[in-house]
Amino acid sequence: MTKGNLKLMLILGLLGIVLLAALGGDHLTVNDPYRTDLAQSLIPPSPQFPFGTDNLGRCVYSRVMEGASASIFSALIVVGAVFVLGSLLGILAGYLGGWWDSAIMKITTIFQAFPSFILAVAIAGMLGPGIRNAILSLAAMYWTTYARLARSLVLKLKDETYIQAARMCGAQKRHIILKYILPNTLPPLINTAVLDIGNVILSMAGLSFLGLGAQPPLAEWGIMISNARSYLQTAPWCMAFPSMALFIVVVLFNLLGDSIRDRLDARGGR
Description:
Blueprint: H1 3-23, H2 25-28, H3 60-96, H4 98-112, H5 116-127, H6 131-157, H7 161-168, H8 173-209, H9 221-227, H10 237-268
Helix pairs in contact: 1-3, 1-10, 3-4, 3-6, 3-8, 3-10, 4-6, 5-6, 6-8, 8-9, 8-10, 9-10
């Protein structure tokens, strides 16, 4: 096994553990993550409360484990949705051309005219706070990347000899797209999607931090960090542990994206 394969397997193993922990968060908690007890507020880490307690006496460890599913899987939903929607629109725009291409590119230009996160904040503000509306606002922020990338890839592929031969043989557009265009555009699109997961997790946490994403009492890393701001000096563990969980997950997804990109580059160079 090469060094690159070993690194990729290690990252996949660690991410697998994280995802399993997120799926089984209810079984890994040591206390009720939503139980409040003001008599036990702001207790430092201890055997009973491994990460301490917050200002309402809730177990920070249990809330970090419970919040993993909301923080990670909401980001996966966003990336999956924009990957499918943006890639489909970009492939159709690049291959069909004409008014379809012009319309889609004008729409993407309008969306990309605004700073990405500011656009997400504006949309979330109009839709109202809540994790569902945060997902919609982030989807509106990220889909243009995939549309433009897919379009540029198709424009390079559509004039290739094998595609022209298929067209001359009478192959239908749907057949050409599914058999020749899609398989050759998927690898870079998938790599972009993997790299975006970490960014989306941070963006989701940012919306929750601003009060536009997950709402109390839901356990979610962004809102936990936001609620802990007032206790940074007196109870730093309230912010440190959800921030550490957010950092580790984002780094792992970024490392996975980098490893996949390196493999694609190495394969393309052969």
